């Protein structure tokens, strides 16, 4: 079977919840349709933005199946399988493959103190059971595990399926350059972090991004401009939207901000998050509404261009 390339923009999906706190599976069809209509390469579920640690194993399975079913042949599906133990990450990897995932995304398990050999063994446990690409997620702010470029290059060189990196260890542009140099540009690198450095990451050699910015069509457009060599058009569009990217990317409340925007766009039935994920207060909601009014004309312009 020919492997599907992952180059492009991947929409990181939140896990929708009802106001009562239950998983809202019905909203996934709208989220996936948004990604497809925007021109995304794929979607990603059960990541940090998907509040994966807040879900039961049964809920994880339901989310994964709903996303894969809704995506069909239109989009690739990368499934987050990260865990705190080798057996669990291996079992989740098997389950994702069995369900039809295109790739698995794996962040390292938390450690009380740095131990590169243990972290390598964790990824080797995934390699031992996978038949699909591994997207290594480098997110030290969440995991507490710092993976230097040499270690990432070792994963790429010694684990055949570790072909991609989701780089969220700022400053990301210089690290992209170092990883590409050490891997001979054999590792496909995605940005993240809400798309805050997308323009710079693409110019450094990133092949796309995996992030949950609530207007994925904007990121798709920036990527297309870069691929075509239209750097100034990419810069202009990115800078137009950067204030909203910045506001949406706030530590702690960023997910709630995104969910409010997505609910406003009709992609979610409710902006509810699952405690202890913090929800935004009334004043923040009012700030957000004020900002979105300013972006209304830009939203219409981008939608028309992509339509």
What would your notes on this structure say?
By secondary structure, this protein is of the alpha/beta class. It has an eight-stranded parallel beta barrel with strand order 1-2-3-4-5-6-7-8, surrounded by seven helices. The protein is 49% helix and 11% strand. Strand 2 (42-45), helix 2 and strand 3 (76-80) form a beta-alpha-beta unit. The longest helix has 18 residues, at 231-248. The two termini are 32 Å apart. It is globular. It has helices spanning 28-38, 57-71, 86-99, 116-127, 140-143, 149-158, 172-183, 198-204, 216-227, 231-248, 254-264, 282-294, 296-306; strands spanning 8-12, 42-45, 76-80, 103-106, 134-138, 164-167, 188-191, 208-211.
Keywords:
307 residues; alpha/beta; eight-stranded parallel beta barrel; 8 strands; globular
Give a quick precis of the structure.
The protein is of the alpha/beta class and 307 residues long. It contains 13 helices and eight strands. It is 49% helix and 11% strand.
């Amino acid at each position: 079977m020919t492997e599907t390339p992952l180059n492009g923009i991947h929409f990181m999906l939140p896990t929708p919840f009802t106001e009562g706190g239950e998983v809202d599976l019905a909203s996934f069809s709208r989220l996936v349709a948004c990604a497809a209509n925007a021109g995304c390469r794929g979607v990603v579920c059960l990541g940090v933005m998907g509040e994966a640690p807040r879900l039961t194993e049964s809920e994880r399975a339901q989310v994964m199946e709903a996303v894969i079913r809704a995506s069909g042949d239109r989009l690739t599906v990368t499934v987050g399988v990260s865990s705190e133990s080798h057996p669990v990450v291996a079992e989740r990897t098997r389950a994702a493959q069995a369900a039809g995932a295109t790739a698995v995304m794996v962040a390292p398990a938390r450690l009380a103190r740095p131990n590169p050999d243990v972290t390598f063994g964790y990824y080797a446990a995934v390699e031992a059971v996978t038949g699909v690409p591994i997207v290594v997620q480098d997110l030290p702010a969440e995991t507490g595990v710092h993976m230097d470029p040499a270690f990432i290059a070792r994963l790429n060189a010694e684990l055949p399926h570790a072909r991609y990196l989701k780089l969220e260890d700022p400053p990301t542009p210089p690290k992209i350059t170092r990883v590409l140099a050490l891997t001979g540009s054999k590792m496909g690198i995605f940005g993240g972090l809400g798309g805050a450095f997308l323009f710079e990451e693409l110019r450094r050699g990133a092949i796309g991004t995996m992030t949950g910015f609530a207007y994925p069509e904007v990121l798709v457009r920036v990527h297309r401009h870069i691929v075509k060599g239209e750097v100034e058009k990419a810069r202009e569009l990115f800078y137009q939207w950067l204030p909203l990217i910045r506001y949406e990317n706030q530590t702690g409340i960023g997910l709630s901000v995104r969910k409010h925007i997505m609910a406003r766009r009709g992609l979610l039935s409710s902006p509810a998050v699952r405690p202890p994920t913090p929800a935004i207060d009334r004043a923040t909601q009012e700030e957000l509404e004020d900002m979105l009014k300013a972006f209304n004309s830009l939203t219409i312009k981008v939608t028309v261009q992509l339509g």
